[in-house]
């Protein structure tokens, strides 16, 4: 099994996912083979992997940084995650120390805290052979998606199935609610949906939405949990050109805070190979956010159960 941080794509909708998986068993077999047979030539690889699309998948592995081609020979350039590493205990121990410092500090909003727990990601490839490790890691890995347009939407969530805009428009982590939304809306792209949805959320900020006829976008917003049963908005729309003093608003432009314990924990992880250290930092970041969500630290974060949380920030552009 492969675990590879996915690099952001630069286009209208920027999708940055903390993690993704190459699920084809061929990749695991190829990595294992090249570990035992370094600097192999293509002819020998094709002899051991006779699949018709092997060269195409080999090229994908090279582009992802898993395999390196030097002088027409191939070698592994991916770090192996140590199976014996008690990563959950390590992350929890460091996480509790960081949580104590955060909770002793004046309260922060979600965006401010996210910026305070920044991980310097180099998207180093990591090979995880135990699928159970991957499944246990997902709740502690934060995924983000940003939608650009008249409004800038940032959604943060952990990497498990739940009803979010990110999962819907990425067609990932499918749920019954997402299936119902798809049947309701049909084929609709993110920008068109948001053009229809945002005005409704704006109108639903102060009082329940009043509509004389059925509207599929209103129903979709309710299924997403962005409108409640009375059609009130459950998410606050922030204006980037106004400094609101309303205590209920999410003020997005506060400076990040330097937490000594988080910095020290990240330094402690440096005793591991760089890709492992980076991954432990990401897990620590996600663990802290999960624990704060469970403590109802953030008024804007939605928690479905102990392993499901997400936060949507909508900002009106200047």
Notes on the protein architecture:
The chain has 318 residues and is α+β, with helices and mostly antiparallel strands. Helices cover 41% and strands 17% of the residues. The chain contains 12 helices and 13 strands. Strands 2, 9, 10, 11, 12 and 13 form a 6-stranded mixed beta sheet that branches. A 4-stranded mixed beta sheet has the order 3-1-8-7. The protein has a 3-stranded antiparallel beta sheet with strand order 4-6-5. A hairpin with a 3-residue loop joins strand 9 (142-147) and strand 10 (151-158). It is globular. Residues 5-20 and 240-253 have low confidence and may be disordered.
Helical coverage, percent range: 40-55%
Residue fraction in strands: 15-25%
Find the count of extended strands (DSSP E, 2+ residues): 13
Helix-strand string: EEEHEHHEEEHHEHEEHHHHEHHEE
- Could you tell me the radius of gyration in angstroms? 22 Å
**Low-confidence segments, ≥5 residues, pLDDT <50?**
5-20, 240-253
How much is the average pLDDT? 83
Distance between the termini: 45 Å
- Anisotropy-based shape: globular
Biggest sheet record: 6 strands, mixed
SS-based class: alpha+beta
Number of helices: 12
Index terms:
12 helices, 6-stranded mixed β-sheet, 41% helix, 318 residues, globular, alpha+beta
């Amino acid at each position: 099994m492969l675990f590879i941080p996915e690099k952001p794509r630069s286009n209208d909708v920027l999708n940055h996912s903390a993690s993704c998986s190459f699920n084809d068993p061929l990749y695991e077999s190829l990595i294992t083979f090249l570990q035992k047979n370094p600097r192999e030539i293509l002819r020998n690889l094709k002899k051991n992997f006779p699949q018709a699309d092997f060269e195409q998948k080999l090229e994908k592995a090279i582009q992802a940084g898993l395999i390196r081609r030097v002088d027409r020979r191939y070698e592994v350039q991916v770090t192996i995650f140590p199976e014996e590493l008690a990563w959950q205990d390590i992350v929890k121990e460091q996480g509790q120390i960081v949580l104590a410092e955060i909770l002793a500090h004046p309260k922060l909003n979600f965006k401010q805290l996210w910026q305070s727990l920044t991980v310097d990601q180099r998207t180093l490839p990591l090979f995880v052979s135990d699928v159970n490790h991957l499944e246990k890691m997902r709740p502690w890995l934060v995924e983000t998606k940003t939608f650009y347009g008249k409004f800038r939407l940032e959604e943060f969530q952990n990497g498990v199935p739940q009803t979010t805009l990110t999962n819907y428009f990425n067609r990932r982590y499918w749920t019954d609610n997402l299936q119902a939304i798809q049947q309701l809306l049909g084929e609709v792209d993110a920008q068109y949906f948001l053009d229809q949805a945002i005005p409704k959320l704006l109108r639903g900020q102060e009082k329940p939405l009043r509509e004389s006829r059925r509207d599929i976008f209103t129903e979709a917003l309710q299924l997403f949990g962005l409108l409640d049963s009375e059609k009130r908005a459950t998410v606050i729309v922030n204006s980037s050109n106004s400094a609101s003093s309303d205590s209920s608003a999410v003020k997005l432009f506060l400076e990040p805070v330097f937490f000594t314990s988080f910095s020290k924990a990240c330094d402690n992880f440096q005793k591991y190979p760089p890709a492992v250290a980076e991954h432990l930092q990401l897990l620590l970041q996600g663990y802290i956010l999960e624990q704060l969500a469970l403590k109802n630290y953030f008024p804007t974060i939605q928690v479905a159960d102990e392993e499901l949380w997400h936060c949507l920030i909508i900002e009106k552009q200047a």
